[in-house]
TrEMBL record:
This is Orotidine 5'-phosphate decarboxylase. The lineage of its organism: Bacteria, Bacillati, Bacillota, Bacilli, Bacillales. PROSITE patterns: OMPDECASE (PS00156). Pfam families: OMPdecase. NCBIfam families: PRK00230.1, pyrF. Its EC number is 4.1.1.23. Transmembrane segments: none annotated.
Amino acid sequence: MNNSLIIALDFPEKRKVEEFLQEFGDEKLFLKVGMELFYAEGPDMVRYLKDKGHDVFLDMKLHDIPNTVKGGMKNLARLGADMVNVHAAGGREMMEAALEGLDAGVSAGAERPYCIAVTQLTSTSEEQMKREQLISVPLQDSVIHYAKVARTAGLDGVVCSAYEAGIIRSELGLDFLTVAPGIRPSGNVVGDQKRVATPKFAKDKGCSAIVVGRPITKAENPLESYLAIKNEWEGVLL
Ligand SMILES: O=c1ccn([C@@H]2O[C@H](COP(=O)(O)O)[C@@H](O)[C@H]2O)c(=O)[nH]1
């Protein structure tokens, strides 16, 4: 899990995923299945990617009452994903229920997937958080607070931006995962993201993993873009 570059497969259908993956040959990747793809293709999409030997982050961001999340996670656990997630705003009891669901659903002998919590979305700015969520503390404090609640609930880590990863590591320990989306190589289109960082910045801050979507999937040459980001993330000097 540590040092992973996770590609966000934000595609509308399986055919587009197949076309995209063709370029990567036999390379085993860490792939993220989010709402768009899962809502179109369902659980078979996860099984398909696992059968091909890839690691899968099933990014469903569960956020509901504890009983509903427990039931949802029980079924997600059966799909064999390596990582799943919830929104930390659902609270400690909901996150504990998520873990109970995963433990109940995971196949005999299999490992429970990592379960991490979204703190503040990387598309949220501090100004927006204060205005729309009525949270008056600095955004970093809100992220750290959610990370602490997630840790207390027994979760394995959080989704945060690269800007908060360093302080989370120092306050919550190096074994607590910090998974950072909002990654943009310098000069890349920022789009709807607000707290963006380069792969090198994320590495320097000690992120456990980065999640990269459009800078790879929308690139003119996705494989080339993937390799450039991977090299920057892994600190390879060219
Ligand atoms: O705070 C969050 C949580 C999840 N995401 C997801 O990561 C990818 C990022 O895609 P880009 O195209 O690189 O912006 C996307 O699937 C989001 O759903 C996030 O961006 N921020």
